[in-house]
Amino acid sequence: MVLLGEKEFFKGIGEIAYEGRDSDNPMAFKFYNPEQKVAGKTMREHFKFAMAYWHTLCGTGTDPFGPGTKQFPWSTSSDPIKAAMDKADAAFEFATKMGFDYYCFHDFDLVDEAETLSESEKRIHKIVDYLKQKQKDSGIKLLWGTANCFSNPRYMNGAASNPDFNVVAHSGAQVKIAIDATIALNGENYVFWGGREGYMSLLNTNMKLEQENIGRFLNMAKDYARGQGFKGTFFIEPKPMEPTKHQYDFDAATSINSLREYGLQEDFKLNIEVNHATLAQHTFQHELQVAANAGMLGSIDANRGDYQNGWDTDQFPNNVLETAEAMLVFLKADGLQGGGINFDAKTRRNSTDLEDIFLAHIGGADTFARGLLVAEAIIQRSNYGSLLENRYASFNSGKGLDFVRGNLSLNDLYDHAKLSGEPKQISGKQELYENILNQYI
Fold it and tell me: Looking at the predicted structure, is the pLDDT value of residue 223 above 60?
């Protein structure tokens, strides 16, 4: 049953069903079957797909060269509370028609920011009360909340890393309100996205102080949330650049190091975004593996970049090859820790029909589902696992096993090398691994 508000916003579009790969219906899933079991879990359980409030409901197609091209029917009221309620109605109509169990938001995606912090807080409280009822009526849950501490001009020099303590304090107040809203809505996680936590020039930057202040800030926020009874996971989302030239959370490895340095590793995981991975000159699967190796693979922002454009284009995922390789990492890591997959992606500026939002999400869900099916087939039906294991077989016995167990010294390596002679050249067989991946796609 589709949950509607006072009016239906996506008219003529019903619930999106799974019809299989031979279906010609553009408004149907071809690969994403929510109840199909893959590697012991249903696709619904693996993915926990979430609608991203900001792009789906707020992204009008504005770019540096012109205003938005999309006139959304839920954005017509001049009353900020009425407009926020209309947007919430559209959000839950969309999510129920898509069959998604989750949504996520920044604070001021929900309702426009007011002139004062106190008035903004009142607005947040009002819309949170409305969302509570929407969640109760629909069964849709909040995957995570976060605060937009990057768009307002006050954050032009950062939020927690700002050189002005007054701005740091304001961002702290905003995060507190966003955490309160997340807790009130039974949010399962909370995200910190440091969109301007970095610097443009070292000449006017005390990098050490700024990074230490971020550590202090995150510990304060964590302690406050735990004190309020929040038991969910906190996520950091790595991003290498744009808008800030030197981001303090450049990639997964950098973020993990920072979390460990400031004693946050027990409470925080990573939220990995595809487009951020490629902007950092990594692959999506690399960033997933780095997070998984550290026990910090928490959640995923599903999108893709444009290989010809060096910025965060946030396009919907459609690269099955890339996603299948990523799902190999995903399955071997036993999935995500606490989070899910939210579509941090926007329809193109010239995709102006409301149905385009559905088509984009259908394609994105099918891409991840198809990648998951390919990964499962490779693991279960091919010799991929044994090939990979055999490549490292020298560490399973003899001196190799002694090395892994920490029982050898550098002199032991020296002695072994003298006795063994020149090592044989052993092929990495990269093309074979690539062919196996292609075979199951």
Answer: yes
